[in-house]
Amino acid sequence: MAARSERNVERIVSSIKPVNFLDDPYDFDLDRTGFPVFSDKNIAFVNALVQNDSAYNFVSGDDVHAMYCGAANGGENEIRNAVYLTDKVNSTHLAAVSVGEGQNQLMKNLATDEWLEIAGSKFMPIDAAKKMDSEENVNAENKTSKDEEMIRLKGGTLLTAACLLKDYMGNGRLKDDLCNKNADDRSILVAKIARAVTNMTHNMLPEHLRVSNQYNRSNFSFASKFCHHACRNVTNFQMDNFCIYDKVVGEMLPYYADAYVDEEWLNKWCEKYNKNAKGHSNCSAYSNRYAWIRGTIRKKLVATPDAIGEDADAQVARGYRGYLELYSHVVDGINEWRRNNQRFGRLSGYPTSDIGFHEVDLMIWYYFKGRRVVDAKNEMKALAR
Fold first, then answer.
1. Closest-CA residue to 21 (of 46, 6, 40)
2. Which phi-psi region, left, alpha or beta, contains residue 237 (left: φ > 0; alpha: ψ -120 to 50)?
3. CB of 355 within 8 A of CB of 337?
4. Do the Cβ atoms of 220 and 54 come closer than 8 Å?
5. Phi, psi of 151 (to 5 degrees)
6. Taking the mean position of all CA atoms in its chain, how far away is CA 171?
7. Which one, 32, 59, 121, 332, has the greatest CB density within 10 A?
8. Contact 322/300 with Cβ under 8 angstroms?
9. Taking 60 as the threshold, does the pLDDT of residue 141 lie above it?
10. CA 197, CA 271: separation in Å to the nearest integer?
11. Comparing 23-32, 114-123, 292-301, which segment has the lowest mean pLDDT?
């Protein structure tokens, strides 16, 4: 294997030894770069912040758990609600589809599709149901009527729900797919959900009206979040089969990969997933390993395919498979670090145990969301100079 210097790929993380561990439970334990490490204290701190954040606890955990379990077992209303809530809470923006000159024909075809008709039925959204319950003791004339709170899915949420209902309504196959330990099969599930809007739109348009650049998209973030939350809930939080992709994690995971993943494995991974049209590695296009990992994720793994069809779906599945491989190795590296550094950031009386995708995702996303991710990107540019 060529040396790193021959690849022109330099490591930007010189050490992950923690340097800032404070007794104050309201301060994060940080590494030398000033980014959080995965100490027990940090994990407990983030969990407490999320649990008490009104942006995410407006629906009770028990209700969310019942919803995802019902969806995994084929419940019609639960599938609608799971698509609706996943999109709303995570701001994944399953937008309406516009196909230019083919819009009128598309709308006619949508109106006659059996599964879209089922998906488009009125239902009580889970957050409105909680509101109705809270109004039980309010004066009758001030109460919101049940019919006023009923909604219909539309746009991307409608098409995605129709895809799931078609394959999973009235059976338990979604639960089986979520609990599947085969990484290739899990990647196919993510790809199917990510491409639902595109494929359903494409199939409903006459061939002469198919202008794929108008509606070709991969809802990669939504699909990974739907599968992540559904899997954890349907297994009573015993299985963590799906890692989440979003813009914040996509920016920061390369840093933690550079810090925690074995260099030889990481170079092979980059060479496997970042190739040009001739099948050659693109490593020489990047000045450092962080940029290489980031470029591989953004330009290869989560990028929308140029075409539509089975080959494109397979490309999305392969992209998630590569992302899952990287994320899994990051988690393994973090857990090795935790086992070797138990004295750092521990809560008295709590043993250090292995963590999974969920804990890593929460730490990265909650710490870096907003302005911090911009500052972090600037910091990494400075490190790479």
1. 40
2. left
3. no
4. no
5. -135, 170
6. 25
7. 59
8. yes
9. no
10. 31
11. 23-32
